[in-house]
Amino acid sequence: MTKITRRDLIIGAPAVLGAGSLSLPSALAQESAADYPSREVKFVCAFPAGSGADVYVRYFAERMRPAFKRAIVVENRAGANGNIATTYVARSKPDGYTIYVHAPSALAANMHLFKNPPVDATKEIVIAATINRQPFMLTVHSSSPVKTVADLVELLKKMGDKASYGTTAPTSKVAAAWFNKVYGLKPVEIMYKTGSDTMNDMQSGSIDYVMHDPVHAVANATNGSLRMLGVTTKERMKASPDLPSLHELGVKDLDVPGWWAAMVPAGTPQAIVEKLNQMWKPVIDGEETRAFMAKFGADTMSLSTAEAKSMFEKDVKAWGDYIKLANIEPQG
Amino acid sequence: MDMNMFQNLMTGFAAAGTLQNIGFAMIGCLVGTLIGVLPGIGPIPTLAMLLPITFGLDPLTSLIMMAGIYYGAQYGGSTTSILVNMPGESSSVVTCIDGYQMARRGRAGAALAVAALGSFFAGSVGTIFIAGFGPPLASFAQKFNSPDYFSLMVLGLVTAVILAQGSVLKAITVILIGLLFGLVGTDVNSGATRYTFGISTLWDGIDFLPLVIGMFGLTEIIRNLESDTIERDPIPTKMKDMWPTRAEFKEAIPAALRGTALGSLLGILPGGGAVLASFAAYTVEKKVVRNPSFAFGKGAIQGVAGPEAANNSAAQTSFIPLLTLGLPSNPIMAIMMGAMMIQGIQPGSAVMTSNPELFWGLVASMWIGNLMLVIINLPLIGMWVKLLQVPYSLLYPAIIMFCCIGVYSTNSEPSQLLLMVIFAAFGYILIRFGCEPAPMVLGFILGPLMEENLRRSMVLSRGDPMIFLQRPISATLLFLTACVVALIVLPSFRQTREEAFKE
């Protein structure tokens, strides 16, 4: 840990540079910030090749290539709810050449979903650049008579514990539990692994609503099999301006977004972190990425490193309450 | 059937038939065959890696290339199953059983030719199937709810008992062991981790590749090395001897027809459809064929033709849910869906009306791709067979190296290699006890799906097991399961079954 503090100090006070053998590693770090990136860069993806998340990571590997002017290799380290990839990145050399393209919201959730999280997310991982913000969507099947959230609440109240709802991920569980709690609804939760798995049971009317991830929801709303009723972010999304937020419909303060970022191990020189932030920003703010994200129901988001840090810390805290709300038992 | 089918197919052939598209179909098929032949390197990472390249291509061209890789890998996977008992894909596990035995008899060429021709025929039928019955079939597949899936898996597992040679008790035992291996990992409902012993690689369950490569490929190598002299019939070198004989064709053709029909139907079901198809086709062959020239498990050509046709027609029809409903039926379809979405095309029923050229072009390219694979693969048979002449002292280390690369590259975890070695030892023990590994693999694949759907159904019915009998699809499947159980239990059947293997 001493090495890290030393580096941080030196970057704050460049005058000390070269003052003796002690500052040699920091001098190297300083030098590499100016030359960075001088060799191949690795993007780590926490999901298997070919998954939806992998498409994101590879999209950015392609789009960031001109900025890095170096080869970008995508490495898939799938498994254990992202913990394998997170641990791998946290233990990598903090030199800016290992970049974790993943959702800090998922890292925050894992801090509470596991009894002994292998990585203390906010202490061991630093966000270099934020990428996007995406909601989960409250959806019903298009053949359902339910047209609005008010219709759905009325139906679920009438059905009581005969009603069922589907969830596909921790965020989905939290948003649904919050929604049910506010209206005093008592549907039974049915758990699915993926959005696709829910479709047949939705069509037959076995489940009354599902809190879907935006990729699945937008795709299936476009082809006419799902009806989206609301988003789980507090404000409406720019990608879907006509879709009300559950907050404005009465689920007060409900704000459970997922968000993506490019992250590096703690201890990476701040100069490199800032440089990365500047390298990502034009790509994130560009029209091409906006259109790409909108297809998946997400808005692009470029924050400063300080804003990202505080958002990350807030999220870790919030998840502590979320898992209690959704009645999720932490696992070991 | 759609009356405009032929007109639509013409549209498709016009779109897919451009020089550029045929060129990329060719590249796709070649790459696919190559990765299929290399054990362990599957189509999924390959497609994912190629995904960024396709950004710059025309949407139809990129899909045609990806589809080519997919079929190519299916073909290539059967090649290694036959030659060295190494299934690269879950759907070619069954091909190992008789295909490898045929190779040991010196009929590797015939087995490869039958696999290629059977697959081509099945692929062609699958293409027509999609063109003519795609939408109605998709809406049938949509009727499958959780209880129906559970019952389908039960039927699949029970028929797996017939798959095995020898004692019923041993077959049931290995299936149960397979189910237990399938339980390892995080439980969907509670999130609890089971049998992981705190090892984080096991949180998502045991991976398919280390299990199957360990139990089939490495076990086979160990078994061959343990005998001083390896008995194998002389390898034919003349093209005439590599081609199936008239008698072999006569046995293979009906098997391929049955396999095609079964595969086309099962392929449309999401999850495990294509795998079930090849296992089911084998079971059907074993049940239907009365007097095969060679017993099943000893190199019956029907055991190659049926499952190979089935897995290929299933590979075709697995496009139906994606193209008509926008629902990917397996991970490869999920990548194709991602590719379509990146290109700004929303998979689903709208594709047919909004992008008819793309939809029908893709359908037509399936046929073109299959034709190309036959053209690529038939001349290669001679080369593959020659590969068997390579001395074991060179062949085996090479195979082991490729296995290690393939297994390691799935997620760069050294522990996967350890798992592979453990399964190789386990596979060897099983064989020593006279147990078959194939039914175990089916249990391993279907187990988690079965559990998931069972528990989901029970929650949906609030704990009432009658849900499995109230739904007509589920009830029908369970009735069929009962019939199969009766067949197994009936003494007369048992006698013929055992006679068949005692020769």
Description:
The complex is a heterodimer of chains A (332) and B (503). Chain A is an alpha/beta fold and 332 residues long. Chain A has two domains: 167 residues, D-Maltodextrin-Binding Protein, domain 2; 95 residues, Periplasmic binding protein-like II (D-Maltodextrin-Binding Protein, domain 2, 3-Layer(aba) Sandwich), CATH 3.40.190. Chain A has 14 helices and eleven strands. A six-stranded mixed beta sheet of chain A has the order 2-1-3-10-4-11, sandwiched between helices. Chain A has a five-stranded mixed beta sheet with strand order 7-6-8-5-9, with helices on both faces. The N terminus of chain A is likely disordered. Chain B has 503 residues and is mostly helical. In chain B, 75% of the residues lie in helices and 1% in strands. Chain B is globular, with a radius of gyration of 22 Å. In chain B, a hairpin with a 6-residue loop joins strand 1 and strand 2. Chain B has one domain. Classes of the chains: A alpha/beta (332), B mainly alpha (503). The interface between A and B is large, with 52 and 52 residues.
Characteristic terms for this protein:
heterodimer; A: 332 residues; alpha/beta; D-Maltodextrin-Binding Protein, domain 2; 6-stranded mixed beta sheet; 5-stranded mixed beta sheet; 14 helices; 11 strands; 45% helix; B: 503 residues; mainly alpha; two-stranded antiparallel sheet; 75% helix
Main sheet makeup of chain A: 6 strands, mixed
Within CATH, the superfamily of the largest domain in chain A carries the name Bordetella uptake gene, domain 1
Number of domains of chain A: 2
Helix content of chain A: 40-55%
Structural class of chain A: alpha/beta
Strand order of the largest sheet of chain B: 1-2
Shape of chain B: globular
Order of SSEs of chain B: HHHHHHHHEEHHHHHHHHHHHHHHH
Low-confidence stretches of chain A: 1-27
What count of structural domains of chain B? 1
Number of strands of chain A: 11
**Poorly predicted runs of chain B:** none
Number of helices of chain B: 23
Radius of gyration of chain B: 22 Å
Enumerate the strands of the largest sheet of chain A in spatial order, edge to edge or round the barrel. 2-1-3-10-4-11
> Tell me about the biggest sheet of chain B?
2 strands, antiparallel
Mean pLDDT across all amino acids of chain A: 86
Number of strands of chain B: 2
Beta-strand content bin of chain A: 15-25%
User: What does the radius of gyration of chain A come to?
Assistant: 22 Å
Head-to-tail CA distance between termini of chain A? 27 Å
